Amino acid sequence: MIGIVVVSHSRALAEAAVGLAAEMVAEDKRPVVAVAAGLDATTFGTDAMAVSEAITTADSADGVLVLLDLGSAVLSAEMALEFVDPEVAARVRLTSAPLVEGLVAAVVTASTGASLDAVAAEAERGLIGKQDHLGGTTVADTAPVAEADRTADVVVGNEHGLHARPAARLVGLVNGFDATVTLTDLDTGRGPVDAGSLSMVATLNAQQGHRLRVGASGPQAAEALAAIEKLAAENFGDEPVEKAAPAPGGSGLDVAIGPAVLAGDAVDLSEYVASDNELGRLDDALRAAGDELRVLRDGSAEHGGIFEAHLAMVGDRKLLEEVRAAISAGTPAPAAWREAYDALATTFEALDDAYQRERAQDVRAVRDRVLRQLTGTSATETPVDGILVVPELDAATAATLDATRVAGIAVRAAGTTGHGVIVARSRGIPLITGIGDVEVPAGTTVAFDARTGSFEIAPDEQVVRATIAERVGERRRALEEAEQPATTRDGRTVDVLVNVGVVQDAVDARGADGSGLVRTEVLFGDRRTAPSVDEQVEAFRAIARALGNKPITIRTWDVGGDKPLAFLPQDKEANPFLGERGLRVFRRRPELLRDQLEAIRRTAAETPVHVMFPMVTTADEVAWALDALGPRHGLEVGIMVEVPAAALRVGTLAKDLDFVSIGTNDLTQYTTAADRTNAAVAPLADGLDPAVLQLIDHVVRNAGVRVAVCGDLASDPQAAVLLAALGVTELSAVGPQVPLVKARLRQADLGQVDTAAVLAARDADQVRGLL
Ligand code: PEP
Ligand code: MG
């Protein structure tokens, strides 16, 4: 193994650099690194004699590489060669490589037993990763790599991507094989690059979740691939990092007051005045947007993936080239930026795959983030101190708002069952939907009360504050009694559980008797590759643990409709809600379901678990699902009833089941033929429509098994009483509503609820009146 000498004016600097480089490789693999730095521990300078001694210390038959810092370090090193044995001097190489990056690359490469030439070349390329990232030399400037004989795909699981240490482990591993190995980042299209070169691997800038295609050729190609797959599965040697706990949730109230913060409107470019340095402005804006995104990513344990993807979009090289070319041709930076990202959003919207189509929303978010930087307009997103007024609420916004700062969200579109609304509710953010086109001047005080449906501009603040105080008291009392059972005045006990989309929902839940719905497609919604069985078990275990090992009902992947999954591409459909959704998808692609069922069975061996299948229509589907599940071993099995046909023939479907759970969100949209994501028909999609209630009543009377409701109707305390009166024995609600639903049930006398009148009512409004 070659030896290394570091010549520097500062001993502290040299020792710190050596310490940093040493971190990259295991102790028993490190080359000898000798330091000749400073005239003493604190006096700057270099001394030829000290350098010659260091060379002698580091000398090996394979040679010595000398890295240097400024000016006279070079002179001292050259002079030192006069002092050492000429035979030794002949195998010493002074390199112009950068001290820190070169030293790291040299230590990593030397540790693999590479020759002096190879180590020196690698050290000299030490700046490539940084230059490439910051826009100097590009990967394309380096020699092309050969075609691979065989390939394998691996995923970067490391929290901070393939950063220096894991990259060093990979390079060390690769260089131990007689094989040429290349890496291509399939998510950014970067590469292929030489996987035996630390600097080239650095140019990939591969982030967590990115898929890497590993190509290998040569006598040990197969062994190299197998070893790399193993290393990747072990997180490239990094310890799995505990995610930071996400910010606590919102107040859980249904009333709010605060200044209106308008969002979602186009960024106004009309006042923009171009300068003679538009490229510089663009770079500043990109840097600032990148900084913002990194803060958002690092602060969001559950949804960091969304911002990671946005970061990749901000740094898209191809688009940046286009934007820069347009700016150089005279287009102002905002116009050039907007044009390129609008075009990209249009491309996404035209794609066949539903998940990819949804990414158009991300592209627009990235477009606007940079435009706001360019125009100096303040961001209208996190953190928001006030009431966010948005045309529609998407899940990413709902998931990532700072729930401790936003006073509430007012959505212009109606509808309470879209996933953005569900996410915001589950986070306890006060929310009202359907405020319509009312003109809201930015900054004016607004207030809403979702219970009465009122939205006021410039309200009487005293009145609103009094209502808030009353609701806070109500909530506090409900929380105090949250752990008590929900036994009605006439002695019926209803189990009230929590719906879980992210583990935090289970952590935050108070008083839940378990989970009546774990939305697995939301739990793993950020993933670009399917989670392994182990990963699923770990997540299910965490949910069960957070709920004190009370029963959890895990729903198998409910992909389709408005819930695409990146790792399960689906064809474009004219009516996705009526197409391949939920269980339907897996009759063609059973392997993913099998893995999930395996994870569910394994979790069930440790803690009480129920499994349920979504979007079931026929008895054949139930039989197929039970067959896919195999022996139950005490696992309780059910289906969701969310298709009217399933509700009508529930007795047949439930014959071999332990329970059914009514998904009122979908049952309502299918009964009323009103798309749950379409604001224009939202008033039709009312869960209290007597037609929906008649189906629920039919299910309770005919199922012959336990009937639960896990749709969002169960989160409305009034509706919860009605459902219980109809005979539903288990309700699963969004976390913040669980204590309120329980409190309301405790006050209720179910015998007093006139269910006959409700079922015969003319419409949902009349039902509300009766309740
Ligand atoms: C439902 O449809 O009511 C339900 C609970 O499922 P999701 O909202 O996830 O479609
Ligand atoms: Mg559903």
UniProtKB/TrEMBL annotation:
Main localization, broad class: cytoplasm
UniProt KW keywords: Cytoplasm, Kinase, Magnesium, Metal-binding, Phosphotransferase system, Sugar transport, Transferase, Transport
Entry cofactors: Mg(2+)
Gene Ontology CC terms, in alphabetical order: cytoplasm; membrane
Highest rank taxon of the organism: Bacteria
Top class in the EC scheme: transferase
Pfam name, any one: PEP-utilizers_C
Catalysed reactions listed for this entry: dihydroxyacetone + phosphoenolpyruvate = dihydroxyacetone phosphate + pyruvate; L-histidyl-[protein] + phosphoenolpyruvate = N(pros)-phospho-L-histidyl-[protein] + pyruvate
Subcellular location, record wording: Cytoplasm
A GO MF term: phosphoenolpyruvate-protein phosphotransferase activity
Biological process, per Gene Ontology: phosphoenolpyruvate-dependent sugar phosphotransferase system
Residue ranges occupied by any HPr domain in the UniProt entry: 149-239
InterPro entries noted in UniProt: DhaM_N (IPR012844), HPr-like (IPR000032), HPr-like_sf (IPR035895), PEP-util_enz_mobile_dom (IPR008279), PEP-utilizing_PTS_enzyme (IPR050499), PEP_util_C (IPR000121), Phosphohistidine_dom_sf (IPR036637), PTS_EI-like (IPR006318)
EC number: 2.7.1.121, 2.7.3.9
PROSITE patterns: PTS_EIIA_TYPE_4, PTS_HPR_DOM, PTS_HPR_HIS
Domain PTS EIIA type-4: 1-153
Function as written in the Swiss-Prot or TrEMBL entry: Component of the dihydroxyacetone kinase complex, which is responsible for the phosphoenolpyruvate (PEP)-dependent phosphorylation of dihydroxyacetone. DhaM serves as the phosphoryl donor. Is phosphorylated by phosphoenolpyruvate in an EI- and HPr-dependent reaction, and a phosphorelay system on histidine residues finally leads to phosphoryl transfer to DhaL and dihydroxyacetone.
Assembly description: Homodimer. The dihydroxyacetone kinase complex is composed of a homodimer of DhaM, a homodimer of DhaK and the subunit DhaL.
Sequence similarity: Belongs to the PEP-utilizing enzyme family.
Protein name per the record: Phosphocarrier protein HPr
